[in-house]
Specification:
heterodimer; A: 110 residues; mainly alpha; 4 helices; B: 189 residues; 2 domains; 9 helices; elongated
Chain lengths: 110, 189
Amino acid sequence: MSVIIIIFLATGLVFFAGGAIGIIRFPDFYSRLHPAGKLDTAGLFMTMIALALYTIYEFNVDNLITALKIILIVVFVFLTSPVATHAIVDAGVRAGLKPWTKEKEKEDNK
Amino acid sequence: MTDLTGDSQKPDDAAYLVDELENTSHKKSISSIIVTFFILMAIWVLLSGKFDTFHITLGIISSAIIAFFFSDLLFRNLILGRLPRVWFRFIVYIPWLIYQIFLANIHVLYLVFHPRMLELIDPKIIEFRSKLKKEMSILTFANSITLTPGTITVSATVLGKFAVHAIDETSGRALPGEMEKRVERIFED
């Protein structure tokens, strides 16, 4: 059981780390939102599943309710995270920021 | 109504928009109040975790008040008979979505850690027109696209026009594709 929990936790942390590094490495505003908005969701999913499993290891009603609350966190993040990402992208589009593309990069280098 | 149709270049779109506006007028139905009440009550019980009379009564009172005033925010045009079927199909859809999210996450993770990342990515905005008609299915589809890494929905309209920012060729190729079909199967029939 604890092996499964550790595997989930480690995978989740790898996703979180990837998200953090991706924000720095990607070239522009829009592409940076990809790791920021989504790798975090996957990381949260993994780590929260691990925590829920850890909580119901000793099974009783109190622990079950705690585990369900943890799952509820995941549900709400899954609902709100895409909306927040979309709001940020929309703000960028409305402000008139052009996305980074390969063609533009080549033109700039000429 | 005639003004709207006259101003627009595409009569189909305008007619549909008018139709949509009339459907979504703010009328409260008993069934949507009841369903909202039960959802709120379930969340109350889960979050409080206490089952004595005092806490349950407080929950019933506050859920009833909120359900009465704000039921039209959660469900519009609720048809009670279809609800169990739609929710069942939605719950079946979730594991597939999580599987897709997982696959796509691994792809973005690979991109992030790749040493020559700048050569691999090719961000572009893809525009397409979706077959989806209902507000709920467009919302679900747009959020599913954003949740799947590699693609972000830039804009989605009631009429089904989508603009999607894709990080590279592989992520963008799958759109609209299978996900749209699955969402369509849930909400529209």
